[in-house]
């Protein structure tokens, strides 16, 4: 198996990183990889399931084994099932270079303390299907949009829709006053 270097389509001034996507053929791995292929980063794709391997190669990407992919990687994206995060980090984290960033796509294993850690490796957690914790929510619809996409906060590149989804839950729900405005909560003290 070989490592694929993506074609540079990002501005030449952007810093390029060596990135390893572990679980590249799964649902989230394919989504992440589809975005990374548009950058000038050096991306390695690793997948252990035959069906996932087929998806990666059908997308025109080459596969590499995980150990080779993470060897000199700056960023390691773990797009693997939650239950696999513990064993996968136990296998791969000891092999990472100092200063590497390990990005998991779901906080459950990290919150439960199941991930292998090293003092010189940075751990980060982000779930691409949940609303951003960095955007300010201002409307009841944005607060009620637990999983993002229905009433996501507006950004210059993504205007909000003027219509409301029929699947949207009530905008009033039990909550701590410190997390939502009282007008959005039921039973606020």
TrEMBL record:
<dbReference type="InterPro" id="IPR050812">
    <property type="entry name" value="Preph/Arog_dehydrog"/>
</dbReference>
<feature type="compositionally biased region" description="Polar residues">
    <location>
        <begin position="180"/>
        <end position="189"/>
    </location>
</feature>
<protein>
    <recommendedName>
        <fullName>Pyrroline-5-carboxylate reductase catalytic N-terminal domain-containing protein</fullName>
    </recommendedName>
</protein>
<feature type="domain" description="Pyrroline-5-carboxylate reductase catalytic N-terminal">
    <location>
        <begin position="18"/>
        <end position="103"/>
    </location>
</feature>
<dbReference type="InterPro" id="IPR028939">
    <property type="entry name" value="P5C_Rdtase_cat_N"/>
</dbReference>
<dbReference type="Pfam" id="PF03807">
    <property type="entry name" value="F420_oxidored"/>
</dbReference>
<feature type="compositionally biased region" description="Low complexity">
    <location>
        <begin position="151"/>
        <end position="165"/>
    </location>
</feature>
<feature type="region of interest" description="Disordered">
    <location>
        <begin position="147"/>
        <end position="189"/>
    </location>
</feature>
<dbReference type="InterPro" id="IPR036291">
    <property type="entry name" value="NAD(P)-bd_dom_sf"/>
</dbReference>
<keyword id="KW-0560">Oxidoreductase</keyword>
